[in-house]
Amino acid sequence: MSGTVTAVSSNGEYSFTKPNRDSITLLAGLGVEGDVHAGVTVKHRSRVAQDPTQPNLRQVHLIHEELFAEVGAEGFTVVPGDLGENITTRGIDLLGLPVGTLLRIGDDAVLEVTGLRNPCLQIDSFQDGLLKQVVGRDAVGNIVRKSGIMSIVKEGGVVRPGDTIAAELPSGPHRPLDRV
């Protein structure tokens, strides 16, 4: 399974959206250099309030560009960085990957998939009604989260638009993604 990086984004300040960059540098065990969510321990404000010592399983947020077309068909305009992701992808089924999948990006970077992004009400502040587009229910009533996946940096490196992404599935029984 493979795909391509279509955009990279980061922000040193807390903000819902993240500006696009020419490149980002991933730092092993920390996240995106200069990004507000980088660190060994959790940086998401609500999670810090609960327990600031918990490990940061949300160092790098990836989202599939195909979602933008899906919500676009419902009248929403979303472009890379708008939903706060660090890496926008094309051609890889991020939501279908199991926990522990390694994503080899570009020449050096390796991410380990930790889980699904749990979208919050800020999405509706960005565009009213968008939250219902990225969180729904399947045919049997299970919650379906479509706003990307979270990961940690196993090996650092520079990531640029156009870089290839190769997924390496973990051995053994696969655990489906859950929110982190």
UniProtKB/TrEMBL annotation:
Pfam families: MOSC. GO terms for molecular function: catalytic activity; molybdenum ion binding; pyridoxal phosphate binding. SUPFAM superfamilies: PK beta-barrel domain-like. Residues 18-168 form the MOSC domain. It comes from the Bacteria. InterPro entries: MoCF_Sase_C (IPR005302), MOSC_domain (IPR052716), Pyrv_Knase-like_insert_dom_sf (IPR011037). This is MOSC domain-containing protein.
